[in-house]
Design brief:
By secondary structure, the protein is of the alpha+beta class. It is built from seven helices and 13 strands.
Length: 263
């Protein structure tokens, strides 16, 4: 006598067969002890799976046996094809529940049982949660140092004449002399020269102790006579429209006359 396959038996239990198929299986199960026993086993598995899903604690030994049976049957093609939707869902939920319990309690008996029931397959432990990345407080931006300013005295011509004297000038300081359409003569130097000292009067400017940067001297074009002296020596002279370079400097287009005290 041939037997009813498991998929058909499961469909018969779930009342999912046509009327003709239902009558045929009814008659066969009534006459075949083997298929009747298989049908009882399938019913018991479905009921035990439902009972396993009703609790949230660790399943008892009987439930674990049900889980193992579902696992073994799920591996068999005949059952996979014929397993009812309800039983399949129950099996998957049971698998998920057991997996969560085992993963959450690494040392529990259920974890060891799962490894045995899955034929040596390990249940993955939950991945360690990464610590939130520490956020380094934003540092307060450091303000850039203020740009150095040029400062210095300015005086009017005395009868069209002006004399400018640079005293104790450091050799590293460059000197530039310009002729411009200005009403007053002026001497500009970097504000970083803290020790610089200047005195002025109509027709004369004295500047001492400039030791860094550059000194810019502006001579009015209208000056009839102008003289620039550096450390006691005449470096530059204007007589009417004529310019005389007497010191260690030279005329530079657009820059006037540029002197270097190093020379």
């Amino acid at each position: 006598m041939s037997h009813v396959d498991e998929g058909t038996l499961q469909a018969w239990i779930d009342d999912a067969l046509s009327e003709v198929q239902l009558k045929a299986v009814d008659a066969h199960v009534a006459a075949c002890a083997t298929c009747a026993a298989e049908a009882r086993t399938l019913r018991e598995l479905a009921q035990r799976a439902t009972e396993c899903l009703s609790g949230v604690g660790e399943p008892p030994v009987a439930d674990l046996a049900t889980f193992a049976a579902l696992r073994r049957r799920a591996r068999r093609p005949a059952v996979t094809r014929g397993l009812s939707a309800g039983l399949a869902r129950a099996a998957m939920l049971l698998l998920a529940l057991a997996g969560v319990v085992a993963a959450a309690v690494p040392g529990s008996p259920l974890r060891q049982w799962l490894e045995d029931a899955f034929g040596g397959e390990t249940v993955p432990a939950p991945a360690p949660q990464e610590e939130p990345a520490s956020v380094t407080p934003e540092s307060t931006p450091v303000a850039a140092p203020a740009a150095e300013q040029e400062i210095g005295p300015a005086v009017a011509l005395e009868a069209g004449r002006i004399t400018i004297r640079l005293l104790a000038l450091h050799p590293s300081v460059a000197v530039r002399v310009l002729v411009a359409d200005e009403a007053e003569a002026s001497v500009l130097y970097s504000s970083s020269n803290r020790d610089a000292r200047s005195t002025s009067a109509s027709g004369r400017i004295d500047l001492a102790n400039v030791n860094q940067g550059r000194v810019t001297i502006v001579i009015p074009r209208a000056a009839v006579e102008a003289m620039v002296e550096v450390n006691g020596s005449a470096w530059w002279q204007k007589v009417g429209p004529e310019i005389r370079i007497l010191g260690p400097g030279s005329a530079v287009p657009g820059e006037g006359t540029v002197f270097s005290a190093r020379s």
